[in-house]
Write a structure and sequence with these properties.
Layout: H1 2-26, H2 31-41, E1 53-54, E2 60-65, E3 68-73, E4 79-84, H3 91-94, E5 105-107, E6 113-118, E7 121-126, E8 133-134, E9 145-147, H4 152-157, E10 164-166, E11 172-179, E12 185-190, E13 198-203, E14 214-220, E15 225-228, E16 245-251, E17 258-263, E18 269-275, E19 282-289, E20 301-303, E21 309-314, E22 321-326, E23 331-334, E24 342-349, E25 354-359, E26 369-374, E27 381-382, E28 389-394, E29 400-406, E30 413-418, E31 423-428, H5 433-437, E32 444-449, E33 456-462, E34 473-478, E35 504-508, H6 518-522, H7 531-541, E36 549-559, H8 561-572, E37 579-583
Parallel strand pairs: 34-35, 34-36, 36-37
Antiparallel strand pairs: 1-2, 2-3, 3-4, 5-6, 6-7, 7-8, 9-11, 10-11, 11-14, 12-13, 14-15, 16-17, 17-18, 18-19, 20-21, 21-22, 22-23, 24-25, 25-26, 26-27, 28-29, 29-30, 30-31, 32-33, 33-35
Helix pairs in contact: 7-8
Length: 594
């Protein structure tokens, strides 16, 4: 009874403290201004960015405008209202598996069959759910084997949301097998607000413990036989070796091989492999190796329409570039050989033999530019203005480009370009009248030198609408800071609403930043919580000479890795930071995903 009273008292005390904090917030200077402006800031710049859908011939496109659907004819330059605005379809997102999980079933390409996992085993039924056949029967909690489902780290860290894969002819089904024997278990409590709670037991090895052995199996519907693919060159599973992780599974276009990625535990060697589903034999198509730190888990890949060649993204030169391969594993040609990074493939025109892609070749690494190169690696041209950041949509016939251009302090505008990048017409401009009416200040970009005394880094500074340079302002560093992320961007950014409480808000990049080459990120490898935190502190110090920057009142906050950054920064640099809020922080690397 005494324990009950103590627990009840703590709950009431906690609730009272929370309510008190909420009441206190309402009394803070700037609260009324914040409540008034915060909902208006995001929509204070309107109309400059068009998201278009091209028709099949490339002579017109459609877009939403003020609640209407509009069609634009490229040749005549005329716009026509054709109905109500089309709302985006988010069903593919909402129908995804829960975080860290995979789909429990898969329909065959011919629509006649359904493969599914149940109670740790694999089954196939007809599309009505009848005439079920059993593929595996060894899966259960007693022997700790499961089929057609993956472990937590596959969904959470490798983005593997599927665990079974039909061949294009619907005659074979590939699927995962995981062995949990010897793995430590993690217990997750559910329904804790109900009278009767429940528990989910997850095989979840912590850092340093052995991973779960994984295999890929293929079931042949005609022979009714299952084989295990030789994913490790005839060797048994050994934690740490190549084959520790098997993921990104898909059938080849002709259905003759099963394609997958294999990497070691350190993830500094990765192989793109192909397996014969009849014999189980595998071969290496592409091998990537970056021993100073890590390879990219899932390199960008685009298979050409002939089904025999593919474009492969690699950082082997120290920068992400594109390479043309065939499925025998022969490198046909490097398509790009830049000392800056390519970003993503926009379009491949197989008929014209051209690759359109975005690259970080603007005035700085965050100003994305559209390039075009022939599939023989010649005539690489930048098609956009390097003074701006660009996002593009290319017509079906590759003759026209709809280009949205902007910078951190120039709101977006949309132009129609020809295939050579010449501006044919301005399609839309941003309306900033509400932005100006609210008295909002544009975000400022600044540069500073990292803790290594040689690397140039970027930051962003947000001001309140009533900013007075003669006053001193407390500072909030809003941070994430994880590897290959960005605090600085060249998309137009409205000021953080928290500034209306009377703060300056800062965003920073460190040597954690992506898009500037592999060797910069190498410095972070094995030094998480050191290198990037040193740089963030230098970024804050670089603002000390501004008379309105109160260096004695600097707070830092963030979520996930940002929570780790906030807590670590306060502990390591108490002379720089004076308060921190660490939300969902990883406070001990030993408790993170293995």
């Amino acid at each position: 009874m005494i324990k009950k009273i103590i627990v009840t008292s703590l709950i009431v005390l906690g609730s009272s403290t929370l309510l008190f904090a909420q009441d206190k917030l309402k009394k803070m200077p700037g609260y009324e201004r914040y409540i008034e402006i915060a909902p208006k800031i995001r929509g204070s710049v309107k109309g400059g960015s068009l998201s278009v859908t091209w028709n099949k011939t490339g002579n017109s496109f459609e877009y939403n405008n003020d609640g209407k659907r509009v069609k634009y004819d490229v040749k005549s330059g005329k716009t026509t209202e054709i109905g109500a605005a089309v709302q985006p379809d988010w069903s593919h997102y909402y129908n995804r598996p829960q975080r860290g999980r995979q789909y429990a079933s898969a329909d065959s390409p011919d629509g006649k069959l359904k493969a599914f996992t149940k109670d740790r085993n694999m089954y196939i039924s007809d599309n009505t759910g009848n005439n079920t056949i059993t593929i595996t029967n060894e899966g259960n909690t007693e022997n700790q084997i499961k089929y057609g489902i993956a472990t937590w780290v596959y969904g959470e860290e490798l983005d593997q949301i599927t665990a079974m894969w039909w061949s294009p002819d619907s005659k074979k089904i590939a699927f995962y097998k995981f062995n949990e024997k010897g793995s430590k278990k993690y217990y997750v409590l559910y329904d804790q607000t109900k009278i009767q709670n429940s528990v989910e037991i997850e095989a979840y090895p912590k850092v340093g413990a052995k991973n779960l052995p994984v295999d890929l199996l293929v079931y042949d519907l005609e022979t009714q036989q299952t084989i295990t693919l030789d994913t490790r060159n005839g060797k048994p599973y050994h934690d740490g070796d190549l084959g520790t992780y098997l993921y990104d599974i898909a059938w080849s276009p002709d259905g003759k091989e099963l394609l997958f990625h294999s990497t070691n535990r350190k993830q500094n060697i990765m192989e793109f492999k192909a397996a014969d589903p009849n014999t189980g034999k595998t071969r290496v198509i592409v091998r990537e190796e970056w021993l100073p730190s890590f390879t990219v888990n899932s390199p960008e890949i685009h298979i050409l329409k002939d089904g025999k060649r593919f474009i492969w993204a690699s950082e082997r030169s120290g920068y992400k570039n594109y390479y043309l391969y065939d499925f025998s594993g022969e490198l046909i040609k490097p398509l790009t050989q830049h000392s800056f990074e390519v970003s993503e493939i926009v379009k491949v025109d197989d008929k014209q033999g051209k690759l359109f892609y975005m690259a970080r070749s603007g005035d700085n690494h965050m100003k994305m530019q559209l390039h075009c190169v022939k599939l023989n690696g010649t005539k690489d041209l930048r098609l956009t203005d390097p003074n701006y950041h660009h996002s593009v949509s290319i017509s079906s016939d590759s003759k026209y480009i709809v280009d949205v251009a902007q910078t951190h302090d120039i709101p977006p505008f949309t132009n129609l370009l020809n295939a050579k990048g010449k501006v044919l017409k301005k399609l839309a401009n941003s309306d900033t009248s509400e932005f100006e009416k609210l008295g909002l200040k544009k975000v400022e970009v600044f540069t500073f030198t990292s803790a290594d005394k040689k690397t140039k880094l970027h930051g962003m500074l947000h001001f309140p609408s009533n900013f007075d340079p003669n006053k001193k302002y407390p500072v909030l560093l809003s941070i994430y800071g994880g590897p290959s992320t960005h605090g600085f961007r060249e998309t137009f950014k409205t000021p953080d609403a928290l500034t209306e409480f009377g703060f300056l808000v800062v965003n920073l990049d460190g040597r954690n930043v992506g898009g500037r080459g592999k060797r910069l990120l190498d410095q972070l490898y094995g030094n998480l919580g050191i290198v990037e935190m040193d740089d963030f502190a230098e970024g804050i110090k670089s603002l000390y000479d501004r008379p309105y920057f109160d260096k004695d009142k600097v707070g830092v906050f963030g979520t996930s890795y940002g929570g780790t950054t906030a807590a670590t920064s306060l502990l390591r640099f108490p002379e720089v930071y004076h308060a921190a809020v660490a939300n969902s922080a990883v406070t001990d690397w030993r408790n993170y995903d293995n």
